[in-house]
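Cross-check.
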Amino acid sequence: MDKEKLLQEEIQLETDNKTRYGSLDSIKSDLEKGMLMWTEQKQKIHAFETEKGDFLDHLKMACLQADCERTRDKMKLRKKEKLRQELELRQQQRDNLETEMRLMELDEDTDKYAEIEEQLAQGKRKEESLEIAIQEIDVDIFTFQQEEHEFNRQVNEMEIVINELSSMEATETSLQNQLLNLQKKREDIVSDIKKHTQDLVNIQLKLVKISREEAVIAIEKKCEEAVFAIKMKMEHDLSSLESLSACPQLLPNGTPMKL
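Predicted model, tokenized:
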């Protein structure tokens, strides 16, 4: 592979890893903050449950709702009874009016008058009895209304507390999910760093191999240049020797030697 390309890849990997290490520092800070917030939220939930334990009893709330429903049913029955009694009262009042009108038409001294008068008296007593019964029903209805209101108040209070706890638990779950996402992101970055570090090592090994090969080539070239220089020097020396051999030599008395 081209050395220049390897060097570019090496620089890019080192830059990417530097960026990833920076991201790890940021994630570490976010994890510490998130863990603190999550822990505080769990503590808030525990304190809230301790303080509001009575309002978090789902069985108790179910019993209150059942009691409220039974009270409502009783109240409906009493209202129906009141309506029936009122209808009977209206009928009795009409009957009494008719009896009074009949009585007004009779002579007071007759037996018929006394009979009708007794009927009217009985009708008045029944009318009064019906009115008393209706009043008693009104008292019952009012009592049931108060009971229903109290049951609803208690149930509403419990629902408010339960909803508040649910909201707190939802926040706690959200914080936990954020932590899990950050941990997953950290794991992915660490995995990428390991992979890129291995790639970086492989590239550096290739660069070392190329450098070694270049060094070998450079040494071989220098050796070749040295050998060539030596060869040239030897050739020059030999040429010089041959030249010297070709020159006339002097005899001991100074006379040139004939070749």
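The chain is about 90% helix and 0% strand. The mean pLDDT is 86. Passed to J.P. for a second look.
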